[in-house]
Design brief:
The chain has about 130 residues and is mainly alpha-helical. The chain contains 5 helices and no strands. The chain has one domain (about 10-35, about 40-120).
């Protein structure tokens, strides 16, 4: 897997999961009273990591997506109000943003794990004679 065009479907799904997570966090920042930092580090890191997974020529790049997604998942459970936002559709921005974020995190972790396993599988030749 030395060129970006050889990105596996699981690798592509990892990128999609990271982008979905960035969209969910951005939705939270734009529609709720969640304290927004001056520089929204979460979405920026997610976009940079998605770029690394997409363009990085190394087999380990999906691990970066897994690590960031796990860190965000832990952070979401530590942050106050997670369960209120997940269970309160009366506040649509927080409700949708949090669910989108969680969906993206789960996709990125599962697909990133699959992509990493696939990247480390031995390659077989198509011309077995």
């Amino acid at each position: 897997m030395n060129n970006p065009s050889a990105l596996s479907p699981a690798g592509k799904l990892t990128i999609i999961g990271l982008l979905i997570t960035a969209a969910g966090i951005s939705t939270l920042f734009l529609t709720t009273s969640v304290k927004v930092p001056a520089i929204p580090v979460g979405p920026i890191l997610l976009l940079l990591t998605a770029g690394l997974v997409a363009l990085g020529p190394w087999r380990w790049t999906p691990v970066a997506g897994i690590a960031l997604s796990v860190a965000l998942l832990v952070g979401a459970f530590i942050a106050p109000g997670l369960f209120d936002r997940l269970s309160n559709p009366a506040q649509p921005g927080g409700f949708v943003g949090t669910w989108v974020q969680m969906l993206g995190i789960i996709i990125a972790i599962v697909a990133g794990t699959l992509a990493t396993v696939q990247n480390y599988q031995p390659r077989t030749s198509a011309t077995n004679t």
